[in-house]
Amino acid sequence: MKILSFDLQAYGPFTGRTLDFTRGDHGLHLVYGPNEAGKSAALRALIAFFYGIHPKTPDNFVHDYDALRIGARLKLSDGTERFFIRRKGSKNTLLDESGHALSEGELARFLDGVSQDVFTRMYGIDSSSLVEGGKKLAAEEKEA
Known about the structure:
alpha+beta
């Protein structure tokens, strides 16, 4: 799966912000910016998009809970493309472009069995994860 665009429609500090990942052929995109730019909120939004917005998310500080929306255009290796929207709620939280409810299976096809834990550890690397990983590597070198 490739994320073509990530739409922070109403989440955390963002309103109507789109991250375009269509350029490049290598599949690696680095999101960076100054402190307090919203990088951590964007990462939480990405995880919430794929696995559901936590009932007590702290990311409602600009938008009310019922207004939280995250969208993404995804592409599979067979060329299948689909746009999804995730809203905060307890049921029917996955929507199509027109706002019609979809089954979670529609998005699960794109995730191909990757759990939230695996996704977070493999693809959601933040600065604290990098620091912790560096410490573990350094400790292993000392032991060797």
